[in-house]
Structure formats: structure tokens, C-alpha cells
Amino acid sequence: MYFDEFDLLDLCAETEVDNAYERELLEELIAVTELVKGAVDGSELLFFAKPFRRGELVFRATSTGRRLLEVLQAGLERFAECFPMCHLNPYVELLFRCAGRIEQPMLFHYVMTALPHETQQHLEIMNGLVVDMRQEAAQPAFKAIIRRFAKAARERTTSLGRYIDAHFAKRSRLVVLRVDLSYEMDFFRGRDLQESLKGVKQDWAKLRQDLAQGVPIPGLLGYACKLEYAHRSGFHFHLLVFYSGAKYCRDSLLARRIGEHWRGVVTDGQGRYFNCNAKKHRYKYPGIGVVNRSDVELIHNLKLHVAEYLTKVDYWLRMPVVCGRSFFRGVMP
Prior knowledge:
Helices cover 49% and strands 17% of the residues. With 333 residues, the chain is an alpha+beta fold. It folds into two domains: 5-138, no CATH class; 172-329, Alpha-Beta Plaits. The strands form three sheets. Strands 4, 5, 6, 7, 8 and 10 form a six-stranded antiparallel β-sheet that branches. It has a two-stranded antiparallel sheet with strand order 1-2. Strand 5 (222-230) and strand 6 form a beta hairpin. Helix 2 (20-41) crosses helix 5 (90-99) and helix 8 (140-170) runs antiparallel to helix 11. It is elongated, with a radius of gyration of 23 Å. The two termini are 33 Å apart. 35% of the residues are buried. Mean pLDDT is 90; it is low at 1-18.
């Protein structure tokens, strides 16, 4: 498995209610990615025939084969609708691209209950699909795409981990804030997404400038920010901010001040925010709040579960190059 993705998603378990569907789809997308990767990396026959009465053969599938059928039955449309501006992980696109070459698309819905005399034909089609996927996944071009997806996430993760270490090397205690920044529901409805993106990035530039100038909180030490897009929530940011633990201790209040500044000043009342620090006690792997250099477990959680969410989401959902940068980080101290 690429990494412990479900633990990462646990960080966002307390986000706004209207994002629940998007979180569920992201979890499913992660699971589909790992499912397809396991299928193409293996050599197991996923679909086979089992003797029935009077010597007839019936269609059967391994657990991996059944899960692939469930994914194909559900279709790709829900991902495309929810994440319209994003490229899906190459393994997910591989599955649906190969499935699209089959002339009987409804086969996925009834193959497990088809009549015995159809078994052999259906086995050839379904096992042919798996062979097709494995052959394409073995090609240098596909491997290069996977390397690019993984390399970008890996480099960001390493960079952000070093960034966090550098701050703790200079200070014995940090206040770590996590704030999700978004816009009012329907804010982007009817608007051109590319034009909207320009405005969103202008809002981020304004917030970044204000934070650097000590507004609304003096003494910014550093930040990391991830821009994402989904159909229901529109453009939104996941922001991680660092302040000195020698100067501040009320992390929930500080996070709220940043959120209110985003809502009332930067977006002129059109923004929304979620204060993750106000819910930090409910997270399975806490890594935000007041963190001491000696808090090995908290720092581990910060780097492995909090920071990695900002850097590795692109492994499953990547905004196109035309959208420009989607990850931002402060200067190394």
C-alpha cells in the first residue's frame, strides 16, 4: 500500500457536513487505487468456472475479482462529477479505460448471475480485461506516469517534513494550527472555473501577505497550504500554520482568528472556515495544538498524519497543470 491513507483521512473526520460525500468518495478512490494496483501487480486468475449440476459450469470470481466488478458496476461518473477539475490516479483511469474497450458494458452488472452456457464467453471477456490491464501497466509509458505521480507526492512530503524539523530545531515549542478555508455554498455556481480560480488564488495571496505581516496574529513562523477542488465544496484550502509556543498557547483561539480573517476580510463575507484545533481532542492521531520538541508522538503524528495529507492527496487527485501550483510552503527557516 502506498501509505496509511485511512489514518490520514481521519484527520478530516470533523469537517463540514456538506463535505461528507466528498470525503467518502476520496476514501473510495483510495481503495480503488490500491485494488487495481494489487490486481495488475499479481498473477492470480481473478475469474474462473465452477462445476454446477449436470456438469454445467457457472461463473465465479475471487474476492479481488468481485470487488473489481463492484467498482465497474458503480462506474466512473461519480468521481468525474465530484472532482471535475482533477486527474484521477493512473491506476483508476487504467481500469476504466480498459473496461471501456469491452463491447458489452452491461456485462459487469449480470455476469455473476448469467446462464451456464454463457460462462466460457464471459470468462474470456473478464480475464481478457485483466490481461489487458496487466499488459498496459507493464509498459514503460504507464510506469513513467506512476513514477511522476508518486515522485511529486514523495518530494513534497520530504520537503515539508524537513521544514517542520527545521522549525523545531530553532524553537523548543510551537503552536501548530490547522484551518480549512472555503467559500459559501453555491459561490462558484454558474461561474467559469478558470476565472474563479484566479480569484481564489488572489484571496490566498492576500491571506498569505496578511499572515506574513502579522495580521491577524503577529509572529508568523511558517505555513503550508494545499488547494483542492470538489464539486460540492468548490475551491478550498487546507492550511497549516506555525507560531512560537513561547508567545502563544491558546491554539483554538488563534485558529479561529485566522478563520474569521479569511471569512470577513479576505473574502468580504463570502468565505467559510473550519477550526480543526477546536476538535483536536477528537482526532485519532493528534498532531496540532501546542507541540513541544520533546513530544515525539505528537511530532510523529504531525509529520505522518497531518502534513502528509497536504502533500499526498495529489497521488489520487491531481489538479491539471493549467491550474498552476496547488501546494504552497513558507521559506525554510
